[in-house]
């Protein structure tokens, strides 16, 4: 495994936007490219934040020329960009930057066209080349090898890897090895779009740029932490992939564990390229390893009714819901449970982090009506980004003290009325600038797989020996009843959006 970069002695200088950039998207006609990547690049180009001389090259096996690709992207922008944000001049400017090449990673024919396109341009020797691998992981290695053979990889080149990065630790290492034979670790950007969300990034500012929270951010004052990513949709067109992966691989191993890291990490010396990733790695390494008995007691897997028929596999044992209890075994968090849950076809769409503080140690208002409740900090990741701090207050009026829970709300949409960039917009700009802070490092990915693998192994064992299936739950519900029992055994309940 290539060595992990060391943390510099002093904060790095601010990343500088290059003058020339070629952004090549492998899988350029796929759903991710048309729904997320091209609209994100449109918005950044519209705002004048991309390099003045940049081009976008879509690469796919689709037999279309550049003119056909521009028509395809024009339609995608009209579909995925709000009408009020579509400026004809900006659209035409982006379309003029587009090129398309029909290539196959396993077939050498035609790759010389990509070489000519990237090399035969003004500023080729100074251009930053970004290669976005929006393709299946099995094509990561072959694609990188082709680029290397053509001499299209140099110190200014960067490669972006979409999940899934493997389906277990061994396959993740194989993918990382294949890419690592061509690109050095500092050139590899493993993207997790959750880390690009405004509220997630603001979590670092909330924790480390304000003094009132940090003294309370530990096991002395925090009762427990909940991290929820709930979806109302099913698997949709992702059925073949999802039925192989399941919710644990698709969401917990990356998104939810990354959110856990940002909540639990120690303050870095400064928020920089490697310091944040160093601290996140320490959290993953401090997660309590789960024994088979721990997995049986502290994990729940479910599947919404009708899932098997939806994916054409009625006998499937793939989970669409996961809830689990984790513990970070270090000085700050020992004894504090972290409850994680994610699922599809639930009764609401929400991604949020809830830090529940301990109850007041003494009842100061014995004659009051109502009661004190635990303070809670809700960090709302989506759909409405913001924060809510839940407190207990006195209800106005004479005749005694009546206690009532109230909240102090921060809505990003209200506090900051300007348009907030999409997560992909922010992360793609970080790639162009060469800032890896919000991307996963190889050791992070492998540490996450190391922790998740015992859960997968125990579930597989129980499925084989006991013919155990995920607990069914009705579509549009809050999930399997065992998820509520997981917290109920500890005398706790899940915090729902309307609480």
UniProtKB/TrEMBL annotation:
Q: Which residues form the Glucose-6-phosphate dehydrogenase NAD-binding domain?
A: 25-202
Q: What class of enzyme is it?
A: oxidoreductase
User: Locations of Basic and acidic residues compositional bias?
Assistant: 487-499
Task: Name the EC number(s).
Answer: 1.1.1.49
**What does the record give under GO molecular function?**
glucose-6-phosphate dehydrogenase activity; NADP binding
Name the HAMAP family on file. G6PD
Q: What this chain does, per the record?
A: Catalyzes the oxidation of glucose 6-phosphate to 6-phosphogluconolactone.
What name does this protein carry? Glucose-6-phosphate 1-dehydrogenase
**Gene that encodes it:** zwf
